[in-house]
Design goal:
This protein is an alpha+beta fold. Helices cover 43% and strands 33% of the residues. It is built from 10 helices and 14 strands. Strands 1, 2, 3, 4, 5, 6, 7, 8, 9, 10, 11, 12, 13 and 14 form a 14-stranded mixed beta sheet that branches. Strand 6 and strand 7 form a beta hairpin. Helix 1 packs across helix 4, helix 8 crosses helix 10 and helix 9 runs antiparallel to helix 10. The relative contact order is 0.10.
């Protein structure tokens, strides 16, 4: 998400907006002064034309006297605004022609600092008049951050600002693209509820990322997770800064793999409603347990297929239909469990290992979209916790159906397991929130 953050930060640079506003104001003032002068002469000409010869002579004299005064002020305004316009355009032209790369470095460094990162590159091309900057051989580093540390390299990074929109006070990036992105991302904390980019209203019309090979390390869990993320292409459109996480998840079309398990994200949406389908195939069972948690943490063999159908509208509700298929699963009771929790885990493990066919678990979550507003991560929305708890409920139902006469025992066990996972999530969230600090560059 760091690419999106830098694009958002670039659109929020105040001196870029001041330059755009200045050019727009100078153009308007120059044009208006010339237009008013032209209208004055047209109106005066029509009024003189309708008079008699004697009246016309007298009117012309009066017109010359009035127009002399008006012309002086109109000319002064036109000259001053014209000179300012020429100076501004000339200044930008000199920067664009002779000092483009130093100017690009200044703008990129300011945007990167706002995102709490440092960005270096070997070459910069583009056009300041169109708002396009293309960087070659880019390195992005962010360390000692409250949420996410990164060490990334991209062959090219392209940013295309909507200067017309910025001249009218809107913070808008038309296009942002990164190609051949490699490196590592370390998640070290949950971060603040509202990171810096959740406060200004910034829009990225289209974010495109191609050919990604990243190692993602999540250090916020009791058992750290390492994911090898390969992405063929990732396209998100649009992205609103106040809904950054939601848009990256639900406004996205992407193809790739996680630790060798293929995934597809497909989205079809309008400003008021939409649908997004996610599919994960042949996810290693132990990986599913690490990422999602719940009863999947008991699995030590097998594969999991996951399908999620998401839909939302104008009522702020996000409806998610989850379907899990556990193929050839095998479970083991964790060695650290003791007492009643060990007995409950043993019961669940026995049920899973006795199944000769695939285990299918399905449920529907009704999530509040507002939980995503201003958040810095998926974990902060409570979504992962809700999925883990729902898995406990569905596994309970399957066990009740399979174990005749043992319904009460399974019900009691499932309730205790659910309570156990709730406590784990509360403990994890408490530890993460203590580590959180205000993000760098939080001053708008």
């Amino acid at each position: 998400m760091i690419i999106g953050e830098i694009a958002l930060a670039f659109a929020s640079l105040i001196y870029v907006m001041v330059l755009c506003v200045g050019l727009m104001v100078e153009l308007i003032v120059t044009g208006m002064s010339l237009l008013l002068e032209l209208l004055f002469w047209l109106i005066a000409y029509r009024s003189v034309k309708s008079k008699s010869d004697e009246e016309r002579v007298e009117a012309v004299k009066q017109l010359k006297s009035v127009s002399l005064t008006r012309s002086k002020w109109a000319k002064r305004v036109a000259i001053v605004s014209g000179i300012a316009l020429v100076c501004t355009v000339g200044f930008v032209l000199i920067l664009n022609t002779f000092f483009f790369e130093p100017t690009a470095r200044m703008l990129i460094n300011a945007a990167a600092t706002k995102a709490g990162a440092t960005v270096t590159f070997n070459q910069a091309d583009g056009n300041l008049f169109t708002g396009r900057i293309e960087l070659q051989d880019v390195t992005i580093i962010r360390q000692q951050h409250s949420t996410t540390n990164v060490d990334l390299h991209a062959d090219t990074l392209i940013l295309d600002l909507n200067l017309t929109a910025m001249a009218w006070g809107k913070k808008n990036v038309e296009f942002a693209e990164a190609n051949n992105l490699t490196g590592t991302v370390d998640r070290v904390g949950a971060g603040p509820k509202q990171p810096w980019f959740s406060r200004p209203n910034i829009v990225i019309d289209e974010l495109l990322i191609n050919d990604v090979d990243i190692t993602f390390n999540d250090h916020t869990r009791n058992n750290p997770v390492t994911l090898d993320l390969l992405i063929d292409h990732w396209r998100s459109e649009p992205i609103y800064s106040r809904w950054f996480v939601f848009n990256m998840l639900f406004h996205t079309n992407a193809r790739g793999s996680i630790n060798g398990a293929n995934f597809e994200l497909d989205s079809n949406h309008s400003p008021t409603q939409g649908q997004a389908n996610w599919a994960f195939r042949k996810v290693p069972a132990d990986l599913a347990g690490l990422v999602i948690g719940g009863p999947l943490t008991l699995l030590d063999a097998g594969e999991v297929d996951i399908d999620i159908k998401n839909r939302w509208g104008t009522n702020s509700r996000l409806v998610m239909d989850w379907a899990f298929t556990l193929r050839d699963p095998h479970a083991t009771t964790p060695s650290h469990l003791t007492g009643s929790m060990k007995k409950l885990a043993d019961t669940t493990v026995t049920f899973i290992n006795k199944q000769e066919e695939d285990i299918k678990l399905a449920f529907t979550l009704d999530h509040d979209q507002n939980d995503f507003k201003g958040t810095a991560s998926v974990q902060a929305t409570g979504l992962v916790k809700n999925v883990a708890e729902s898995l406990v409920e569905e596994l309970k139902k399957s066990a009740v159906a399979a174990m005749a006469g043992g319904a009460e025992k399974v019900q009691e066990g499932a309730d205790k397991v659910k309570s156990y996972f709730k406590e784990r999530f509360k403990r994890d969230e408490g530890e993460n929130s203590e580590e959180s600090e205000p993000e760098s560059g939080s001053t708008e």
